[in-house]
Amino acid sequence: MPNLVYVSRGKCIKLPHNFKAGALDVLLRISATMTNEPVILTLDSDMYSNDPQTPLRALQACISNSSRGNGWPETSELNQDHLVNKSIESREVLSSAHHVAGCNFESQTQWGTKMGFRYGSLVEDMYTSYMLQSYGQDYLEVILSGGTTQRRWNDQKVWLMRGLSSYSIGSVEYILKSIGISTFRFNVTSKAVGEEQSKRYKKGTFEFGIASPLFLLLTTAAIINLVSFLLGIAQVFRQGSLEALLLQMLLIGFAMVNSHRVPIRPKKMEETRAKGLPLHTRVLMPRTWANRVFACVYLCAILALLYHHLIAVLHSTSMVPLFILLADAVLAFMWATSQAFRMCPTERRVFIEHLQHYVKQSDYPGLDVFICTADPYKEPPMCVVNTALSVMAYDYPPEKLSVYVSDDGGSQLTLFAFIEAARFATHWLPYCRKNKILERCPEAYFRSSPSWSPETAQIKMMYERMRARVENVVKRGSILPDYITNEAESEAFSRWADGFTPRDHPAVVQVLLEADRDKDITGLTMPNLVYASREKNMNLPHHFKAGALNVLLRVSATMTNAPILLTLDSDMYSNDSQTPLCALCFLLDPCIDSKLGFVQFPQMFYGINKNDTYGAESRQSEIVLIGMDGLVGPTYIGTGCFFRRQVFLGGSSPQLNPDLLVSKSIKSEEVLALAHHVAGCNYENQTSWGSKMGFRYGSLVEDLYTGYRLHCEGWKSIFCNPKRPAFLGKAPINLNDMLNQTVRWCVGLLEVAFCEHSPITFGARSINLLTGLCYGHMALWPISSIPVTIYAFLPQLALLKCVSIFPEASDPWLFLRLFLFLGAYGQNCLEFMLSGGSIQRWWNDQRVWMMRGLSSMMFGLVEYLLKTIGISTFGFSVTNKTVGEEQSKRYDQGLFEFGVSSPLLLPMTTAAIINCISFLWGIAQVFTQGRLEGILLQMFLAGFATVNCWPIYEAILMRTDGGKIPVKLTLISIILAWALYLTSSIAF
After folding, report:
1. Spans of all domains in the chain
2. Residues marked as binding?
């Protein structure tokens, strides 16, 4: 029999393996140690021999060729004249073979440069033959032709397709690679062919079927050629002049004939199946092709406008063109980076009912739920309790479920609330199971007015009694002795002694329910429930929410160490008891990428008024997550996310190993001692926590930064957006709270943008270019305040000074500006409505974006700059979750809540005054001097801003309730507006 040898070379992730050329060189060396034949044949895995006499034909050329190539091996066993006389199964030969197959063998040698298959190009075949011929080795080329006309046509058609796609993208990728930006990874050409795909190929149908940027230019060219050809025909018939257009019509018609099979409709992308039943499907969204074509057209318009601005700046002595260029350049950058979300938006569908065919319920992995709270007065304990009860009632084996509550405020009020919740849970969980209710958050369930029954009345009474006790304790600020029912509770509260403050206190870890011991009223096991408040010291950094989550990571690792984690905000209760099963459809799928690190659910809110006054619905965030899902996956948004524990604890201490099975009672002294130890404020000193392990430090937006760093490390994610919202939270319904929250976000986002691992540079190299642009867009979101501020003041002040700064109505450049404005707003509105929004909600959403741009984004940008130079400004503040009755009524009526004299309201109030006055002044100019043509665009901007500012005018002039703008703030805004008008003479 012929010799048959299996080889898998040594690999190390820290050393280059040089792809196929490296594999062939290993085979060269191994074969030299074993058989060392003078003639070698190389084949791809799918290239079988079709003629048994093929070697004889090759020998006709090889026997007469006595010349040899350059480059002699460094060991005698690899010499091309070495004769092998030992058995290839002998220890000596096998040892030598393993040695030459090692990943370090080629170090400090000429392999890949002057010997073997050559390195330095992904097309190792052509590069090797080129290098060999350069050194003088002859090759016999035999070209046998005889194809058909149709084959020749298809050959030139494919050449055109390559020229419009892979050649151009390959050139761009090489340029990006040359400057250190990583784009695509090396992919093995697929040899697997589906039955349907094979049928289409036999019919002669092109196989486009996937959402690839390689098809973008191809599809765009096909559409442009079709439209221009039809317009050309129409012009010939209308004007009867073919002579001038003949060659253009010929070229366009030729391109059309070649493009008749190019697709413009997206198709299904992937479906994971086992036993014929998919766990989930993924499809490309229908609007994808339109996004790509529109992006090409819009980009051309932007480049034309920027060129026009640049010429104006070079030929003007005024500062106005420079400010306009700056504003449009920032808008162009934000638009360009936002297109990364639109290149491959996907949507998924999950089939929970198929999960039973993959895994038994008894084999579900353990699930640890993390809930974070920080202040019992801004985040009421009953709100946190409802969140915890909603996840404790999951349709999930209770012995595999654990809930950990992080109280970063170290409040005994929160602990008391959870002691009460633990008692109530023994009644609530059986009630949910028995009645199979959907709303498993008690507050949401009773708010929905369930049908009356004695059992329902009883459970509601128990809930109301618990809520009254908890709210009474919070109102008093202390716990009455009558409320403490046993010694264990008394001992727990005894830790709150003198000197115990929210910013300086020891660690507290209290097990409230243990699955192995505690039962509900029906005798079934209860989930674990653990309260944790980490140690704090005023002299040591605590890293806000990221630090609290890392403590929960370590505490849970010592107690239950479940392989799956769920993180939730204090007010984000579960709205679907089967949500963990949705996540398992991805995390347990045997066919999915092993590098799947987390599954993110959308952040949605309840109690939003009809028109969503503050844009809390956040449809734009959903659009961003859907867009990223088509790349490497969505980022982490801070709540509603299922993680694999191993993404955080891959290389930590033995007690925190993600694969460690915890067998001891979580109430044992040993486990509790270790839990208190890892919750200490000194535990992270001289460790990788926050940098390479756990949730990442370095930004106030720890969620986005953690998701970004995980993606940089190679982990992937999935966005799961079921029809029934998985989680619902409480959105801010106070303008000041919303703006303060945005300031915090902006500072954190800029910390990500300008950190050591900046998305635009490090991210584009480590992940890929499109995902790097996605993160760059999010991180640099605060700079949107620059164009918003410029366009809110500059054109209006120029109008008041009777200065025209934009093209006249008859100028074509005016129409270009209108196209850019309407195109951007139109696309945004269409996406908003396709995702389930309404026109009124979209209008409020874009109005809130402008309000943020004029206030919180600008303040966040300034605060970041001051922080960079060492000037401390505002501190971290928890978003207020408490709402007054009058404030709630005004929100339900759709009224903005101004109500406080905050500096955040000052810029928008000033802008509202200036825009209103300039618009009225412009109208007067039109009627008195007929100057509409020269000031049309300035009038349009002032009028658009005036319409958006109507709630501000209403709050200044018409309202008398507590949500109106204070008179003091109005007077300051008028003074500022007057000062800006007087000083604007410098610019005009």
Report:
1. 19-45+57-134, 151-184+207-264, 277-348, 368-731
2. 378-379, 408, 545, 569
